[in-house]
Amino acid sequence: MKAALIQHRYEGNKEDTVKKSVEMIKKASKEGAELVVLQELHQGNYFCITEDVNNFDLAESFEDDVKFWSNAAKENGVVLVTSLFEKRAAGLYHNTAVVFEKDGSIAGKYRKMHIPDDPGFYEKFYFTPGDLGFEPIDTSVGRLGVLVCWDQWYPEAARIMALKGAEVLIYPTAIGWFDEDSEEEKKRQYEAWLTVQRGHAIANGVYLIAVNRVGFEEDHTKALNGIRFWGASFVAGPQGEILKRASFDKEEILFVDIDKRRMEDVRRIWPFFRDRRIECFKDLQKRFCD
């Protein structure tokens, strides 16, 4: 399977940003990509940088957005992983990944389960935690374990997806630095992000795709200076090896060939699933073990 990760910046408005995404999807398709993955909330800016009730209007177009990306998948003949702002009902919103099959049909949805609430990442203000569980999505290119951003820090989510047969873990992402942070702190944050996800690939013997946005986005309330999204989208193999990695500051399409047979080979020499002591894991269902 040939996959393409699309990393780009916010173009200042939805129309131009979507146009950029479509242009890159077309290019990826022409280069032979069968699976195309977009970044988190790829249609516009990362609006969660501040709390503003007017931003809920962005979810009003969810049904139209689904139709649009369905057509994009069909026109380019790719399995497409999107990340959209879903209005489910008045006052009920989700951060939702919708996966489209090559014919434009909906292969499945995933609603982000872990919702952060930190300075510049006020997602609890906007999103209700998902209620679809950790269920892989079957597509013509394989069984995809689609998760979203903050989910990438939780080994339990990756494990459940893998136990249910996911062949690739996929994380549309929006993560970045504050310019005022020291270079040492920036390095620690990036390496933690990279390392924890490589760990998921290793512990589960699967491929892992993380697609992050790039570029600086302002906080228009001026409470913060803004976020500089660090890009660095990457693909890890089932032993955690980095197969491809994007730059920290450039828009680009990252292509990678995924050999699903390699998962079987790795799991035969590192049989982590065989040796799990599942009868001893009850404490994982507790908030904390006092």
Please provide a brief summary of the model.
The protein has 5 helices and 16 strands.
Keywords:
single chain; 290 residues; alpha+beta; Nitrilase/N-carbamoyl-D-aminoacid amidohydrolase; 5 helices; 16 strands; 25% helix; globular
The CATH superfamily is identified as: Carbon-nitrogen hydrolase
Average of per-residue pLDDT values = 97
What's the tally of helices? 5
Radius of gyration: 18 Å
CATH topology: Nitrilase/N-carbamoyl-D-aminoacid amidohydrolase
**N→C terminal distance:** 46 Å
Structural class of the secondary elements? alpha+beta
Structure, described:
Helix 2 links the parallel strand 2 and strand 3 (79-81). The chain is of the alpha+beta class. Strands 1, 2, 3, 4, 5, 6 and 16 form a 7-stranded mixed beta sheet that branches. The protein has one domain (2-285): Carbon-nitrogen hydrolase (Nitrilase/N-carbamoyl-D-aminoacid amidohydrolase, 4-Layer Sandwich), CATH 3.60.110.10. It has helices at 14-30, 62-76, 155-163, 183-204, 261-269, and strands spanning 2-7, 35-37, 79-81, 84-89, 92-100, 106-111, 137-139, 142-146, 168-173, 176-177, 207-212, 214-218, 226-230, 234-236, 242-245, 252-257. The mean pLDDT is 97. The N and C termini lie far apart (46 Å).
Can you lay out the helices and strands and say which pair or pack?
Layout: E1 2-7, H1 14-30, E2 35-37, H2 62-76, E3 79-81, E4 84-89, E5 92-100, E6 106-111, E7 137-139, E8 142-146, H3 155-163, E9 168-173, E10 176-177, H4 183-204, E11 207-212, E12 214-218, E13 226-230, E14 234-236, E15 242-245, E16 252-257, H5 261-269
